[in-house]
Amino acid sequence: MLRSMYAGVSGMKGFQTKLDVIGNNIANVNTIGYKKSTINFQDLLSQNMSGGGANPMQVGLGSQTGAINVNHNPGSSMTTGVGTDLALMADGFFVVQEPEGDERQYLTRAGQFTVTAEGNLVNPQGYNVMGFENEADAADAGEVFDPADDASPVVIDPLLYDSFRINREGEVIGKAADGTEAILFGLGISNPANPTGLSKFGGSLYEMTTMASADGINIQTVGDANTSVASGMLEMSNVDLTEEFTEMIVAQRGFQANSRIISTSDEILQEVVNLKR
């Protein structure tokens, strides 16, 4: 069988995967916190021909998918005016935790949070937003933030505080009925060494992997993570439609060219069969 036919098949498979990646990016162009994916190709093994000569005599056997990477460049910010809508102004991820079961933790850039009737700060799936409770003395609670050693779900007691706000340092400040304010929590941020190594879980969430961080999810305060929080804003998708449509044209033409290789190889095989007639 002609090697060119198998090379064309591998090329068609590769460009089909590229179209799948592009289609997913375009479908999530308005998804909050979505990070686009890019695909890279690499050649397959080459077959050695007869020896001799100064240079190797090899024929390639097609292409394959080399990597599908996630681009973690920040997306544009959209102003919502909702105090619980949060956007990170630099690297890092919010940390959310399952409220029940094994209480697994996930990372996300989607800061579309709400407060439940019990005062829990949660994401749209109901996962608790993690942070550090303020352990400063009650007399200094309005001015001093002394984070606890371990992170816990952020809770604003509705019986003690009528409202709250979140400042750029990620501090959750509750306001009592008499107008006094107190720092209740500091939001937790995780900044893995290799964000591209995170595994997409769905719902704009990421699972930690050993490729992203050998130490698992390390939760820090906003200050320690060298970032800041914008309240009343959301980070949108970083998908660029102009770029995606251009890549779609390239993938379409590549798919057509590889299909032409198969057609041409089939015509050659037909000629070989006709030699017996």
UniProtKB/TrEMBL annotation:
Keyword Ribonucleoprotein annotated: no
Keyword Isomerase: no
Name of one Pfam family that matches: Flg_bb_rod
Domain Flagellar hook protein FlgE/F/G-like D1: 90-172
PROSITE patterns, per the entry: FLAGELLA_BB_ROD
Domain Flagellar basal-body/hook protein C-terminal: 231-275
Keywords: Bacterial flagellum, Cell projection, Cilium, Flagellum
Major subcellular location class: other
Compartments in which it is found: Bacterial flagellum basal body
Entry superkingdom: Bacteria
Domain Flagellar basal body rod protein N-terminal: start-end pairs: 5-35
Protein family membership: Belongs to the flagella basal body rod proteins family.
NCBIfam families for the chain: FlgEFG_subfam (TIGR03506)
Annotated PANTHER family: FLAGELLAR HOOK PROTEIN FLGE, FLAGELLAR PROTEIN
Role played: A flexible structure which links the flagellar filament to the drive apparatus in the basal body.
Name under which the protein is recorded: Flagellar hook protein FlgE
Source organism (scientific name): Metaplanococcus flavidus
